[in-house]
Amino acid sequence: MQIVQRVEQEKPPLVCIASLAPRGLAQARYLCKRLRGRFPNLTIVVGCLGAAEEASGAELTSAGANLVETTLAGVARQIKPLLALDQPGVPRRAAISK
Description:
Shape: globular
Number of strands: 3
Strand order of the largest sheet: 1-2-3
Structural class: alpha/beta
Low-confidence stretches: 89-98
Distance between the termini: 27 Å
């Protein structure tokens, strides 16, 4: 099943894309563009592992990613509070801007 179709069906609170630099950057950018075009309010977090933050961050945020991290620990740190947004009793925060 394509990721876009799966997001349409499951309506997750966020999508996390894992990419291995340098070859995965183009694929992650393409997926960000497709997801952002179809789901303008979706939170997209990209783990561009092994890349320099300056190089990957600007490209991926311009393609639609809300957050870009270059380590697995950074990705986990970013998504943990975002997933808590949909838990009962946890107040929702303002939307994440690009």
